[in-house]
Predict the 3D structure of the following.
Amino acid sequence: MSNRTERDAIGELLLKEWKDFAEVLADRGETWATTDPMTWPRDSTLWWLDHGIRRLLDAAAVVGLKLTREELERQHQERAEYRRLFPNGAPTLTNG
């Protein structure tokens, strides 16, 4: 079993890769729910991103981080909504 720092690092890598993956899908007018991996040309950007995500999911499982593609998509959507709501970063309280 790994420590929390390792699990957090792999989780962040997965979310970064998933963001890149989702952006390439969006450029094609697709989402994870609507894409068909059989239509991706071998050695395409999507194919390589997917390959990397599969390896990271394997690594995550080894260190006890149980994530699915559906969970990655959900977290990606939550982060995208947060960035939409707060484009300049997290809100702060200031003495005015």
Observations:
- The chain has a mean pLDDT of 89.
- The first helix runs from residue 4 to 27.
- DSSP finds three helices and no strands in the chain.
- Helices lie at 4-27, 45-62, 69-85.
